[in-house]
Structure formats: C-alpha cells, structure tokens
Write a structure and sequence with these properties.
The complex is a heterodimer of chains A (249) and B (314). Chain A is built from six helices and 13 strands. With 249 residues, chain A is α/β, with parallel strands linked by helices. In chain A, the strands form two sheets. Chain A has a nine-stranded mixed sheet, sandwiched between helices. Chain B is α/β, with parallel strands linked by helices and 314 residues long. In chain B, β6 and β7 form a beta hairpin. Classes of the chains: A alpha/beta (249), B alpha/beta (314). The structure holds flavin-adenine dinucleotide and adenosine monophosphate.
Chain lengths: 249, 314
C-alpha cells in the first residue's frame, strides 16, 4: 500500500519569531527554516510501516515556495520514495491545502495519509481533519500509536483526559503527536541517494484549486510583554512574597 | 443571527470549558444555543441550560455519539449548521478534532484558538507559539471558531433555557471506539486550576516527580503539569503537558520547577497571573517571565516549600 505524507516548510522550532515593525506579519527574511517537527514524525512513521513490510511506497508532498523542495528532499533522505512540490509563493490556508491534498489523493490513491497535528507557524491544527472530511474518510488525530491492520487501522490518541484508541476503516487520515516516535536523522549516503529521487513540480491551478484566502489578516502584533520580576533569596522569602505581596496563597 | 456552541461534556457532566467558551460566544453578540450531543447526556444538557445567557439547549442522543468521535459528531453539527451564523467550540482535544471537519464540510475556513472577540467577525489568535498575535477577519457566511478557553472567564449560572431534542444525523460509520485510559486524580484539572505546579526534565524519574512535586501540589490544592521533556521521559502522563502543543493554562499561580523555559513551554503558561521559577541555573530563560525566581536545587527547595506552606497555612 501507498502512504502519502504532506510536509510543510516552517520557521525552525528553535527560532523565536519576530513580528515586523509595521504589523504586516512575521519577519522570515534570513530566518532558519526547517520541516515542521510533527511532519518529521509523520515521515518517520511512514518509513517504519514500510520497513515493517506494511507499506510499499511513501510519497512526500509539500505546498509552498521553490525552497519547499529542500523540505521534500529532507523527507526523501529520511526514506521517502518520491516527492510532489505544489509550487506557490502565496500563503495557502489549511482549507485550500486540504483541497489540494484531496486532488493529490485522487491521483495517487494512497491507503493512508499521515500529517502533522499542527504546523508550528500558523498553529492551526486543521489540515488533516479537513482533508479527512473532504475525502469522506475517518480520522485518527494526535496519534501516539498507529497499529495498521488489514483493512483498518487502530490509532491511540493523546486527549485532554489521557489516551483514547479508535479503529478506522481504511483508507484513513492520521495526524501525529509528539510521542509517536523519534524521527531519525538522514545518513550521508541517504542524503546523496535522495538527490536522485524524483520530485514532480505542480501548481495549485493544475489541481483546479482556488487558493485565495478566506480570512483577512488585519494586523500581526507582538504579544503583551511580560516584565521579569526579581529573584528571591530563600524559600521562606518566596512564600512570604506569594502570600503578602502577590496575594495568591 | 444565532450562534451554536457545541458543548464539551462527559455525558453525565458538563465541562467547565463550555462555560468559558460560552463567554466568547456571548461576546459575539448573537443569541447562543448550546448543542449537547452524546449518549445519556441529559445531565450535561440540564447543566448547560442553567448557564446564564443560553437561549436554548439542543440535545442529540445516539450510540455513535457516546465518545464524541469526530466523524459522527461533525455530521450532527453540519446538519444543524444551516440554522446558524456561527459555530463555536472550546479548543480542547475534542473541539480540535471535530471542528475542522465541520468547517471543511461547510466549505469554511476555521479560525482556531481565538483569545479575543474584537467584533462578531474579527478575532485575535496567537500564532508562532504565541510570539505573535494575529487579528483576523472572516468574510465567511458562517463562522467556525474554536476558543482558547484560558483567555476567557467561565460564564456563571442563573439561566433556565428550554431543552429540546433534535434528531441525530446518520453515523458515517468510518470509525469506532476501541478503548480509553483516562488518568484519574482527585486534584483539580489543569485547565481550570487556580494554582499549578509543573516539573521538568530535572526531576529525573517518575518516582522523584511523585515524591517531590506531588506533595507540594497537594499542600496547595494545585493541579500538576509537566514539560514535554518530562512527559517524553515518562515522568508524567501526556495529559499533564503544558505548552504550544499541550495544554494552555493561565492560573493565578504557576510554579515551574526544573523547567528551562523553552519557547514551546512558555507558549502554554506565560499568561499566568503570577509565575514562580525554581531552577539551579540562574541563566535559565524561564526567569525572564518569572515574577519570583529562586535559584536553587529543586530537590532542596521543594521539600522546604512544603514545610513553609505548612507554617503559613497553620
Ligand atoms: C514541535 C514541538 C513541540 C513542543 N511542544 C512542547 C510543549 O507543548 N510543552 C513543552 O514543555 N515543551 C514542548 N516542546 C519541547 C521544548 O522545546 C523543550 O525541549 C522542553 O520544554 C524542555 O523541557 P524541560 O524544560 O523540562 O527540560 P530542559 O530544557 O532540559 O530543562 C531542564 C532544566 O532544569 C534545570 N535543572 C536541572 N537540575 C535541576 C535541579 N536539581 N534543580 C533545579 N533545576 C534543575 C536545568 O537548569 C534546566 O533549566 C516542543 C518541542 C517541539 C519541537
Ligand atoms: N503547505 C503545506 N504543505 C504540506 N503540508 C501541509 C501544509 N500545510 C499544512 N500541512 C500539513 O498539515 C499539518 C497541520 O497543519 P495546520 O493545519 O496548518 O496546523 C502539517 O503538519 C502538515 O502535515
């Protein structure tokens, strides 16, 4: 079976985003960009399923600028088989991403699509669920365990109260949470090999998807800054201040 | 103009997250109907009817809705959507699961995790782990919105809305419930606690976490939280994780012990009223958001804190 893994190129998780002075957005010029961390987990999970003999091809897809090809290349170096870059310099909202992915699914017919639960730039946590809805498939979101069976998949999900396991009929959509696995680093020989793996280039128009944003961003601002307080010298002083100064005990 | 608020509940009880999301829904100005979809969920519906300002409670019951699985729940909400201009739910793991499904079925772009209602069509939401706040306007005919409940106070009781039954949509039968492991605790829930004490990687083991953090929590009547590192290492369960991709909290008092203060952790707690950091590294970034910083070894400081609390609590 085939697995489709959508990966997004985002600000590196170690970099603190800076808001542009004119309020028009976040400054990404000369900022380190990487694969969305949850998507690395998705790629790793797909590779493990292939290594376990449960999948035979992993297709990586990214919607973004020309540089998103590097993100696809990283996933191919980890163990993906081939890539599809849907090239656009515009911001594409999760709903439009889901529509493009739906069209890719129609062409590729994967049995499983594994996405990240959340992109760490827009923090939307929407795309996988939207894709599942548009396809009329079941969804296993925030997965900490994926158990692929015959015709179905059991997904253990991280929920507010603990863990929940659901069974989904295949084909299905899974979104990954942090505890699903620890993604591997690509080895040098695999990075070299990945250079020869094919990446198809497409555009949103090839899939007939209108990516015009539905939402208007009026402004992007710095959050209210928090003043650091002082240090206390002892536990006794801490308790005294919490009780008598802050009034929270 | 009417807003549909989809309740978060356990069938037998209404979650406080619903009362908080109601505050946001009410701020949008229209009448609010609350949907309680579940199985044997009359008690939750009755509790929803008592919330101030609720105009009507709709109850939908079916076997498929018992565990709030996304596919049947989204089918119910989508079918009811034609009568509403906005659909709102708390951004809990349940809300985050079914709401984007509703949005896609309605061909609407969802606005996730709002922290402020600026006007009925304009909202503020954090992006980039809370390092930027976006003001977004929706031109969609229907708005689909999830609410970051830490930013809203709970609406109180005092209402007596009518409760009406509504028909359940057909279950798309794409998924089924297999089982769950819910953490049981007598301590307050993270997202509604007034005081939280969280432990990080520095704790070193599950045993130490329980030995050092938990007794202080019990003294304070606090909920217990953890960093991702502590959860990954198995010192604490996943549902204790505070942060960008865990729970977002804003208690009166947040105590971070042995937590460095990574961007992703700060995203989940920096709106707390008072922050205390206990860390042996005086350069730790957590001190930059702390009102009170104590540079100390937590294995000395926390047992001492327990004793000092005993003194002031008499
Ligand atoms: C996609 C993504 C999502 C993430 N989401 C989250 C999230 O939701 N929540 C989250 O918390 N993290 C999240 N993280 C992880 C985050 O980046 C950090 O790795 C994590 O928060 C670190 O946890 P920590 O502070 O416990 O550990 P460390 O960074 O290792 O810090 C341990 C601290 O303990 C101190 N210390 C050590 N011994 C003692 C002692 N005896 N007494 C006192 N202090 C001591 C040290 O000085 C240090 O500051 C995420 C990361 C990624 C990539
Ligand atoms: N532009 C994109 N290209 C490929 N995958 C994407 C894109 N945007 C979102 N995704 C996928 O959807 C997941 C959730 O993103 P979001 O809904 O934006 O938080 C990500 O982890 C990716 O797997």
């Amino acid at each position: 079976m085939k697995i489709l893994v959508p990966v997004k190129r985002v600000i590196d998780y170690n970099v603190k985003a800076r808001v542009k002075a004119d309020g028009s957005g976040v400054d990404l010029a000369n900022v380190k960009m990487s694969m969305n961390p949850f998507d690395e987990i998705s790629v790793e999970e797909a590779i493990r399923l292939k290594e376990a003999g449960k999948a035979d091809e992993i297709v990586i897809v990214s919607i973004g600028p020309a540089q998103a090809a590097e993100t696809i290349r990283t996933a191919l170096a980890m163990g993906g088989d081939r890539g599809i870059l849907v090239k656009t310099d515009e911001t594409v909202e999760p709903l439009a991403v889901a529509k493009i992915l739906k069209a890719v699914v129609a062409e590729e017919s994967p049995e499983l699509v594994i996405l990240g639960k959340q992109a760490i730039d827009d923090d939307s946590n929407q795309t996988g669920q939207m894709l599942a809805a548009l396809l009329g498939w079941g969804q296993g979101t925030f997965a900490s365990k994926v158990d692929l069976g015959d015709g179905s998949v059991d997904v253990t999900r991280e929920i507010d109260g603990g863990l929940q396991t659901v069974k989904l009929t295949l084909p299905a959509v899974v979104t990954t949470d942090l505890r699903l696995n620890e993604p591997r680093y690509a080895s040098l020989p695999n990075i070299m090999k990945a250079k020869k793996k094919p990446i198809d280039e497409k555009s949103p128009a090839d899939y007939g998807v209108d990516t015009t944003p539905r939402l208007t961003v009026l402004k992007t601002a710095e959050p209210a800054a928090r003043q650091a307080g002082g240090k206390v010298a002892s536990v006794a002083e801490l308790v005294d201040k919490l009780k008598n100064e802050a009034g929270v005990l | 103009m009417t807003t549909l608020l989809v309740a978060e509940h356990s069938n037998t009880a209404l979650s406080e997250q619903t009362a908080k999301a109601l505050t946001a829904a009410t701020a949008m100005g229209a009448d609010v109907h609350v949907l309680v979809a579940g199985k044997g969920c009359k008690p939750a519906a009755e509790a929803a009817a008592r919330l101030a300002g609720v105009a009507k409670v709709l109850v939908v019951e079916s076997d498929a809705l018992e565990h709030q699985l996304a596919e049947p729940l989204a089918a119910v909400v989508t079918e009811l959507a034609s009568g509403y201009d906005a659909i709102v739910a708390a951004a809990t793991t349940t809300g985050k699961n079914f709401m984007p499904r509703v949005a896609a079925l309605l061909d609407v772009m969802q606005i996730s995790d709002i922290v402020t209602v600026v006007s009925p069509d304009t909202f503020e939401r954090p992006i980039y782990a809370g390092n930027a706040i976006q003001t977004v306007q929706s031109g969609e005919a229907k708005k689909v919105i999830t609410v970051r409940t830490a930013g809203f106070a709970a609406t109180g009781e005092g209402g007596s809305a009518a409760i009406e039954d509504a028909a359940a949509a057909a279950d798309p039968a794409l998924s089924s419930f297999v089982g769950e492991e819910l953490s049981k605790s007598d301590r307050p829930e993270l997202t509604s606690a007034k005081i939280i004490i969280s432990g990080g990687r520095a704790l070193g083991s599950k045993e130490k976490f329980e030995e050092v953090i938990v007794p202080v929590a019990d003294k304070l009547g606090a909920a217990v939280g953890a960093s991702r590192a502590a959860v990954d290492a198995g010192y604490a369960p996943n549902d204790w994780q505070v942060g960008q991709t865990g729970k977002v909290v804003a208690p009166e008092l947040y105590i971070a012990a042995g937590i460095s203060g990574a961007i992703q952790h700060l995203a989940g707690m920096k709106d707390s009223k008072v922050i205390v950091a206990i860390n042996k590294d005086e350069e730790a970034p957590i001190f930059s958001v702390a009102d009170y910083g104590l540079v100390a070894d937590l294995f000395d400081a926390l047992p001492e804190l327990e004793k000092e609390l005993e003194k002031v609590q008499g």
